[in-house]
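Appendix B, Record 12. Input sequence as logged:
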Amino acid sequence: MTDKIVKELFLLQDTQYADFQRRLIPNIAKDSIIGVRNPVLRNYAKKLAMQEDVHIFLSELPHKYFEENQLHAFVISGTKDFEECIAKLNVFLPFVDNWATCDQISPKIFKKNREKLFTHIQNWLKDERTYTIRFAIGMLMEHFLDEDFDKQYLDIVAKIRSDEYYVNMMIAWYFATALAKQYNETLPYIEKQILATWTHNKTIQKAIESYRITAEQKMYLRELKIKPEKR
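Logged structural output:
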């Protein structure tokens, strides 16, 4: 089944887009990127998910090509049963090897199961794998910064320390989004410099770039940037 899928992916190839993707995702092998645009992959994934033997493709891990991982992510995102979705995720997450695939996983079923989801997020955060942790933070950002917001979620993310660039970027993205959605609750984490220095400054940078932050707030955030010590 995988051979057939790969053959079809090459028929959908856009070589210029492949070159663009290779620059965006430098940590995976260049020849693992075929060059298929996401809207095309999403449509393909919908058709794939309807096939009775889709489980064969989902079980053939690790995938060779980036687009196979994208297809896998889209199939999982469309899974309608919560427990089935979690089971598929727990099999797939250890094989996610790049930020793009990680950030494409967004199961719609999670919106209706936030209470159960939080338990799984806590488990994913205990993992040592870069993209499992990144995914967990992303789910906190997507599902727990609005009506289900609680300050404990800020505490959870603020305590994460990592040497991994893609984890720290997600922490910064999370706090920048939190500033946009829960400014008063989030601001003290910046004022008190609770985050690691690089993440602190990146959070401010991303917040200043956001149209959801007011000009006055941006002005104040600029003042909170940690300047490097002079030698």
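The first helix runs from residue 2 to 11.
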